């Protein structure tokens, strides 16, 4: 079947809810491995107490994620999205598996050797994140908004799932010998399994859903080359310059520079959302909140509350009147989050654990809500060249999705660097 024939199918193709479910699972797989590393931070702090693992691993992860994403965003229009996403999920699987191997091979002992090995694998997570997150967001940007919302909810669900399991395993193994290590091994095994499931879901099932084939065929007719392999896997051919039905005008699209200029406010939104969040989460929560009645459970509870509320908040924009769509209002909301930095400082210094739990929950609430608002509104906004707004087409939406993910990852990197400022001058730097 040809893409032109398939795009002429009924306008309401089947498989929407199946696609949303798969997007949710793929979202979990996009961050579950990294969230496992963060959530077992208390275990790594017992193995490497002098190396600031929560901060160092985040700092190692980010340059590789951003460096890879810069290359992918630049060459986005020429990259095979199918191979890109499958390569990312495969790298996630093997990296997570080898984190488990490192722990088993060293029998859970610390030292600089195992720590360097874990840092190398954290860098692999960064490369995999750029491959998958940019590829998936770009691909979903030209589909219906519910798909990208489900994917983003899956990203948050990975943190909530891991936090729930962490609390469960901490309670189950708290009184047993090597309880932290047993919990960490269980986490890594579950994460490896989820990554394997994601490989099969994306490779076999997602591609063949009627609604996914419809949107990809539509994008192909608008000039997108990135969907050709996925359409071929679904049994749909696309025209090339050597075949009939090809129109060079379809290939005309806004450049990345033009797209970035017209969507600069959205790019700024995502950068500062994550710069503020990562300047606090997780390093500050592990190292700067002091000792409270919850004892060793304190940091675990804070991480869990952030992840759970972050997940819930990503469903709020599904209610139309609760969704923030004004570009100016989004900017105001994003910049108002800078007030959270002094709020966390004074709460850690003078407040009790109840206020800190509330603040951490609010951090997660605003992070998830604003992320979904920006990434679902931006691809459907219009670029205002000339007198009339120009709706974005498939190739442009894909490119914009990659650019926005690059800004998101840049914000995470900036936040991870700023997170170190909390420990300057306290004698433990």
If you had to describe this structure to a student in words, what would you say it looks like?
It is a multi-pass membrane protein. GO terms for molecular function: nucleoside transmembrane transporter activity. Keywords: Membrane, Transmembrane, Transmembrane helix, Transport. By secondary structure, the chain is mainly alpha-helical. Helices cover 70% and strands 1% of the residues. The chain is built from 18 helices and 2 strands. The chain has helices at residues 3-7, 16-39, 41-47, 53-74, 81-105, 112-140, 145-173, 179-205, 210-221, 228-233, 256-262, 264-278, 283-287, 298-313, 327-336, 340-350, 353-377, 394-418, and strands spanning 382-383, 390-391. Strands 1-2 form a two-stranded antiparallel sheet. The protein is globular and about 60 Å long. The N and C termini lie far apart (62 Å). Mean pLDDT is 83; it is low at 240-250.
**Average residue pLDDT:** 83
Low-confidence stretches: 240-250
How large a portion of the residues is in β-strands, by DSSP E? under 5%
Shape descriptor reads globular
DSSP strand count: 2
Strand order of the largest sheet: 1-2
Helix content: 55-70%
Class based on secondary structure composition and strand pairing: mainly alpha
Q: Sheet with the most strands?
A: 2 strands, antiparallel
Radius of gyration: 22 Å
Number of helices: 18
Our measurement of the CA-to-CA distance between the termini, rounded to an integer number of angstroms, reads 62 Å
- What is the H/E string? HHHHHHHHHHHHHHHHHEEH
């Amino acid at each position: 079947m040809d893409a032109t024939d398939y795009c002429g199918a009924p306008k309401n193709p089947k498989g929407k809810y199946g696609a949303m479910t798969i997007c949710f699972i793929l979202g979990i797989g996009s961050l579950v491995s990294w969230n496992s590393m963060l959530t077992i931070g208390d275990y790594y702090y017992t193995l490497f107490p002098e190396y600031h693992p929560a901060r160092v691993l985040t700092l190692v992860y980010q340059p590789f994620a951003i460096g890879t994403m810069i290359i992918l965003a630049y060459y986005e229009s020429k990259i095979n999205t199918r191979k890109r996403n499958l390569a990312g999920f495969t790298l996630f699987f093997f990296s997570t598996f080898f984190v488990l191997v490192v722990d088993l091979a060293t029998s859970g002992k610390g030292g600089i050797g195992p720590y360097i090995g874990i840092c190398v694998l954290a860098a692999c997570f960064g490369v995999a994140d750029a491959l998958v997150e940019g590829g998936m967001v770009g691909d979903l940007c030209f589909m219906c908004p519910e798909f990208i919302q489900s994917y983003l909810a899956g990203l948050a669900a990975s943190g909530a799932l891991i936090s729930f399991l962490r609390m469960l395993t901490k309670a189950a193994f708290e009184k047993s010998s090597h309880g932290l290590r047993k919990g960490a091994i269980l986490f890594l095994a579950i994460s490896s399994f989820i990554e394997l499931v994601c490989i099969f879901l994306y490779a076999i099932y997602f591609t063949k859903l009627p609604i996914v084939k419809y949107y990809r065929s539509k994008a192909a007719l608008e000039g997108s080359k990135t969907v050709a392999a996925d359409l071929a896997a679904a049994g749909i051919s696309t025209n090339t310059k050597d075949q009939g039905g090809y129109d060079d005008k379809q290939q005309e699209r806004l450049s990345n520079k033009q797209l970035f200029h017209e969507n600069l406010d959205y790019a700024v939104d995502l950068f500062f959302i994550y710069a503020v969040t990562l300047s606090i989460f997780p390093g500050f929560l592990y190292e700067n909140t002091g000792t409270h009645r919850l004892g060793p459970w304190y940091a675990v509870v804070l991480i869990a509350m952030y992840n759970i509320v972050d997940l819930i908040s990503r469903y709020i924009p599904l209610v139309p009147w609760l969704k923030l769509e004004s570009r100016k209002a989004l900017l105001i909301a994003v910049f108002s989050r800078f007030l959270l930095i002094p709020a966390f400082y004074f709460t850690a210094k003078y407040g009790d654990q109840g206020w800190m739990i509330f603040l951490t929950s609010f951090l997660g609430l605003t992070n998830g809500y604003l992320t979904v608002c920006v990434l679902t509104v931006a691809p459907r906004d219009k670029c205002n060249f000339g007198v009339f707004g120009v709706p974005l087409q498939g190739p442009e939406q894909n490119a914009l999705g990659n650019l926005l993910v690059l800004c998101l990852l840049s914000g995470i990197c900036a936040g991870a660097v700023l997170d170190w400022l909390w420990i300057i001058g306290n004698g433990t730097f």
